[in-house]
Each structure stands twice: as structure tokens, then as C-alpha cells.
TrEMBL record:
Residues 36-76 form the ABC transporter domain. InterPro entries: ABC_transporter-like_ATP-bd, P-loop_NTPase. It holds the Pfam family ABC_tran. Keywords: ATP-binding, Nucleotide-binding. It comes from the Bacteria. Gene3D superfamilies: P-loop containing nucleotide triphosphate hydrolases. This is ABC transporter domain-containing protein.
Length: 80
């Protein structure tokens, strides 16, 4: 059992994988109102994310930014 645990331990010499998706300090304004205010998100390859919130919380707008359908007013996104 110890051998399996040792094999699964992270290798300090291995370079970490870049994130599959990164949104940094994203701001979005709609009709003069800030609807996203400095949102940051990092998702690693193979990682699942659940986005929940009340109606009107701008979940769909965040997803549009992630997919590249809209551009943020400020900040940036990067997909690898």
C-alpha cells in the first residue's frame, strides 16, 4: 500500500501543467452597471466546475466570457 501512495505523490521536479482555462480580474458592464466585478477563475485540465447562483447573478454572462462569445470590459481570459 505504501508503494502506491509513493507513486501518487507529486514529483517536485515535474513542471506543473498550465491551467486549461484562466479568467483574471474580469469586469463587465451592462447599461452602465457593473455586473461582473473583478471575477477570477482558474480551471485545470480534467477538472469539473459547477456554477451556481441566484437568478440575475450573471452566470450566463460569465459563461459567455469563458467561451469567448463576449469580451470583458476589463481583465482577460485565456484558454489553453
Amino acid at each position: 500500500m505504501r508503494e502506491a501512495a509513493a507513486a501518487a505523490a507529486p514529483n517536485p521536479e515535474r513542471t506543473p501543467e498550465p491551467p486549461a482555462l484562466e479568467v483574471t480580474e474580469a469586469f463587465q458592464h451592462v447599461a452602465g452597471h457593473a455586473v461582473l466585478n473583478g471575477v477570477s477563475l482558474t480551471v485545470q485540465q480534467g477538472e469539473g466546475v459547477l456554477l451556481i447562483g441566484r437568478n440575475g447573478a450573471s452566470k450566463s454572462l460569465l459563461m459567455r466570457l469563458v467561451l469567448g462569445l463576449d469580451l470583458p470590459s476589463a481583465g482577460h481570459r485565456r484558454r489553453c
